[in-house]
Amino acid sequence: MKRDVFGQPLFLKRLLIRVFGIASWRRFNHHYDPIVSGAEVFQTLPDAGVLIVSNHQTYFADVMFMFHVIESALDGHPNNIRHMGFLRPKKENLYFVAAEETMKSGLLPKIMRAGGAITVKRTWRKDGEDTKRPVDTKDTEKFVKALSTGWVISFPQGTTKPFVEGRKGTAHIIKNEKPVVVPIVIDGFRRAFDKKGLKKKKRGVPLRMTVKPPLDIDFEAPVEVVLKQVMDAIEQSENFLHVN
Fold first, then answer.
1. Are strands 125-126 and 129-130 parallel, antiparallel or unpaired?
2. Which residues lie across from 34 on neighbouring strands?
3. Tens digit of pLDDT for each residue in 190-212?
4. What is the pTM of this model?
5. At CA 71, angle to CA 114 and CA 97, rounded to 5?
6. How is residue 160 annotated by DSSP?
């Protein structure tokens, strides 16, 4: 039985991609207005060593939408999630980073863990309260392991709040591992869904996703410079604070 780098059976991952795809396809396409651009970039990327960075608006809807966009693009239909690329998923080594406490809160998050979640402990927040704790090296190892064998979707801010300062851990991983970094900008999910991204708040909202070309990063630059480049690319730096 073929398994991914974390020991999850690939047939189970394919099944979960199909199940979540079927469950969310109608919602995205009939209850909202999906507007995707730049997804042809996914057709040009290597099979591993790709870090997808994005702003974050809900816990789960963002990620599910990205899976639709990626699978449709790899199946030859970029920018068109009406195409059901998830029925024959091309990308099994696709992972996303999620807070450990979030992925324990209910049955659905626990199922999604088997579908490709890399759970990490927040160093700045625990059980809804501000805290400060050291980075768990095992979390970094999981991140790097996934990145070395596939694509990883990460949210550098670690929160759904807009214009929060990015976490330096992302920049450290970029400097050390030198991945292909693909920025994504999303919008509309906060207005369309509740915070978890499971319940509808308002129908008919445009769900926008812009996939940008890979960043040209100087891996020898200071961490702060790399992080600023990422935050500018996902339009969450102070340069965009008054634009939105």
1. antiparallel
2. 207
3. 999 999 898 999 999 999 999 99
4. 0.90
5. 40
6. S
